[in-house]
Amino acid sequence: MPGGLRPDYPVKTERLDLRPHRREDLDDLLAFHSDPDVVRYVPWPVRDREQTRVALEAKLGQAELTEPGQWLVLAIELRETRTVIGEVLLKWASDTDRQGELGYALNTEYHGRGFAAEAAEAMLKLGFDDLGLHRICAVIVAGNDASVQLARRLGMRQEAHFVHNAFFKGQWIDEFVFALRDDDWRNRVR
C-alpha cells in the first residue's frame, strides 16, 4: 500500500455522493454537529457554529490517505437535494498489519433510510478494494444500538466487548469492537 488512497471524487452510491468537505458545507454540518442525539456516541461534543467551522477547516485537508494514522473524512451528500446529511470516515490504522477503522455520523432527520449503510459500504469498498486493507473495525459505544445493527448489516462480526474501557464524556463506558476481514468482504454476496 505504498501509494495510499486518493479516491476519484465524488464516490457515487445509489443515492449519495461521498466527497471532500467544502467550506459551504457549514450550515449542513451545523445541523447535526449541534444535535445532542447525533453526538451522544461520537468523540466530539455538541458544537456551536464557530466550533463547527473550526472542525470543518480541519476536515478540508482529509480527502486522501498518504500514511498510516490518517483519517479519510468525507461528506455524505444526498444527490437529490445536494444536502450534506452526514459524514463517513475511514482510518488507515496500520500499513504493516493492513488495519483500518470505520466511522460515521448522520443527521437524525435522515436516520432509518439506509443512508449510513450505503455510505459505510462505499468506505469499506475503498478500504478493502483500493487501499488493500486486511481488516476494518468499528468501535461502538455501548448503548448505540443503531450502530451495532448497522455493523451487523454490513457483515461485521463482534470481536470484543470492553468493560469500562474508555472515559468518554465524563463517564466510564463499555465499547464494542466489530470487524470485517478482506476475505469475508470478498466472499459475501454484494
Describe the structure.
With 190 residues, the chain is α+β, with helices and mostly antiparallel strands. It has six helices and eight strands; from the N terminus they run ββαααβββαβαββα. The protein has an eight-stranded mixed sheet, sandwiched between helices. A hairpin with a 4-residue loop joins strand 3 and strand 4. Helix 1 packs across helix 3. The longest helix has 16 residues. It starts with 10 loop residues before the first strand and ends with a helix.
Q: Class by helix and strand content?
A: alpha+beta
Distance between the termini: 24 Å
- Could you state the order of secondary-structure elements as H and E? EEHHHEEEHEHEEH
Taking the sheet with the most strands, its summary is: 8 strands, mixed
Tell how many strands the DSSP assignment holds. Answer: 8
Proportion of residues in β-strands: 25-35%
How many whole angstroms does the radius of gyration measure? Answer: 16 Å
Number of helices: 6
Q: How much helix is in the residues?
A: 25-40%
Main-sheet strand order equals: 1-2-3-4-5-6-8-7
Low-confidence stretches: none
Give the overall average pLDDT: 96
